[in-house]
Amino acid sequence: MMNLQKDLLDINHFYYCLLVALRLRKKLVPFESDNQRKSFTINWLYTAQKRKLFPRITHAEILWLVDEFMKFNKNMSELEACIDKIYLTSLGYIADNR
Fold first, then answer.
1. How many domains does the chain contain in total?
2. Neighbours of 90 (CB within 10 A)
3. CA distance 9 to 30
4. For 1-98, where are the alpha helices, taking DSSP H only?
5. CA gap 65, 52 in Å, rounded
6. % of the chain surpassing 90 pLDDT
């Protein structure tokens, strides 16, 4: 059970960092197009994976997110809302299991 809690914390931390990166980018480059934001996000994910910035458990999350961003043709705000929901849901699981 302890390992599951650690994995959940690692995944939650990864999503937190991704959200911070996305929100900082939005603040620093407010008039960026959805395609530019999508490109930034994919590059951020690839860089995080290449540099091994997060524990191995996040590898599957990164691959899934890259795939989702590559095939997603709608408003980036929808994807960001999904990421936010994943983050908040995992945070709720962490709080429930303490």
1. 1
2. 19
3. 31
4. 2-28, 34-50, 59-71, 76-96
5. 16
6. 74
pLDDT bin (cut points 50, 70, 90) of residue 36 is: very high
Span 65-88, pLDDT tens digits = 999 888 877 788 888 999 999 999
Distance between CA atoms of residues 20 and 24, nearest Å: 6
Q: What is the rounded distance in angstroms from the CA atom of residue 17 to the CA atom of residue 35?
A: 21
- As a whole number of angstroms, the distance between CA 45 and CA 59 comes to 10
pLDDT of residue 14: 98
Structure token pair of residue 38: 């999508």
Residue 84: domain span: 2-96
Let me know: does 42 contact 67? Beta carbons within 8 Å: no
Report the C-alpha gap between 75 and 47 in whole angstroms. 23
